[in-house]
Amino acid sequence: RLIILDFGSQYTQLIARRIRELHVFCEIHPFTHAPNLVLTDDIRGIILSGSPCSVREEGAPNPDLGHVLGRVPVLGVCYGAQLLAQQGGGEVLPATIREYGRARLAALDDASPLMHGLHTGSQVWMSHGDTIQTLSAGYAVIASTPEVAVAAFQVEGQETYGIQFHPEVTHSTEGKRLLQNFVVDICRCEQSWTPDHFVDSAVLALQHTIGPTDQVILGLSGGVDSSVAALLLHRAIGPRLHGIFVDNGLLRQDEFATVLKAYEGLGLNVTGVNAAPEFYAALAGLSDPEAKRKAIGRTFIEVFDREAQKVTGAAWLAQGTIYPDVIESVSVKGPAVTIKSHHNVGGLPEKMHLKVVEPLRMLFKDEVREVGAALGLPGEILNRHPFPGPGLGIRILGDITPEKVDLLQRADGVFINLLKEHGLYSQVWQAGAMLLPVQSVGVMGDERTYERVVALRAVTSIDGMTADWAHLPYEFLAEVSNKIINQVRGINRVVYDISSKPPATIEWE
Ligand code: XMP
């Protein structure tokens, strides 16, 4: 495996994903782990990430790498490269011209294993305010651009490299080749990290961890992560996996029935619990978004716990946690701030006194989908948009009543079905309708109406952290609007949300 030491760059996860795409397993560790890193045989190489800091700043991350350099291949990217240069006695100074965006490799040393197969003129992506001015003796430049003399270097007699550009972004057109050179040729990592390999080893590990008579409980949501976790556990322990799928009354139109049927079709042992009235009772009169989230989370725990008690011999609670939730985030520029409380069901394992098993905790989202496909998860679940735990509860602005839920389910249903019919569903990251707490005047036939407004939201995104509104065709939006207003009695106006994130969020609450 490969270790990526994270110095806080926004691109660190992207480096890991690119390496996984090469079918090589890698892990991200905060740079603070560097001094304690023990070089076991299975660690084939180390990558040092970029950082929002400058190596010249007081207090910038500067872990001692002496015990790894020369013993295992190391690749410093951007800040990582500057750190290697500086620790080796070179000089890093503020760049005199801006070095952001596109650049082209003007000279490169094709004899260097890192640069092998890359071409002069190849586009690379730069993003740095400092530049490596001088290198110590024993450091050889292996690539330059017209502006950046030291675009890449190697420490002679060692497999230690630094590159100033970002090979992980797609704008660096031969970046993947460079990473492959490092990971496969220099580090000699095995390219065995495939979905099938993961399934085989995860199933064995689960069988090993979970006792032969232990029962395992898993909350299913119809989403990709919990469904893939269920299939994996089902393969490992069969009917000793007890899935619980709670209808909180805030799901999409027909979702509970459709998803439950899909689970049954997969042979999963799943109990569907209709708890809508309990959720509506807990939500009665609440309009504040955080209060609604808390009420939904609390009720979920109550319902789930009650159902779980019915399973005798339950020893484990399985969760569909994925790698981005696990990676210890490095905060080099002040503490991260929680904007919304997304972790709706935090506290569940503690309350239930169960051990936790998280079979997907090393996977990125795209890998979860690949594993799901390898396990035969049907496309309707595999390619489903993300949907928030509190569901329509945070898409009905203000207080929630069953009537409003019904109205929104029908409007949302029209939107989602038309997206699918027009082949647009898979082109957006997430889409849905919001029921606004205002009424507006309309005219239908000779009658004046005074009814509700829905806002349609569709966004493109890679990970939900940033998003742009989806530029859906006008004709399509016209059709959706028409159909909603004609078919959903109680709605007389449809608007389209054209805000990006940031500054807006994807959900309205
Ligand atoms: P925002 O609205 O913060 O949403 O831009 C980013 C992503 O997170 C989802 N989301 C939630 N998911 N519980 C969840 O499980 C929540 O309370 C919650 N709020 C937002 C949102 O749907 C989007 O995918």
From TrEMBL:
InterPro entries the record matches: Class_I_gatase-like, GATASE, GMP_synth_C, GMP_synth_GATase, GMP_synthase, GMPS_ATP_PPase_dom, NAD/GMP_synthase, Rossmann-like_a/b/a_fold
Catalytic residues (positions): 78, 166, 168
Domain of life: Bacteria
EC main group: ligase
The enzyme's E.C. designation: 6.3.5.2
Molecular function GO terms recorded: ATP binding; GMP synthase activity
Any Pfam family: GMP_synt_C
Pathway named in the protein's UniProt entry: Purine metabolism; GMP biosynthesis; GMP from XMP (L-Gln route): step 1/1
Signal peptide coordinates: none
GMPS ATP-PPase domain segment(s): 193-384
Keyword Ubl conjugation on entry: no
Function field: Catalyzes the synthesis of GMP from XMP.
Protein name as catalogued: GMP synthase [glutamine-hydrolyzing]
Organism field: Hymenobacter montanus
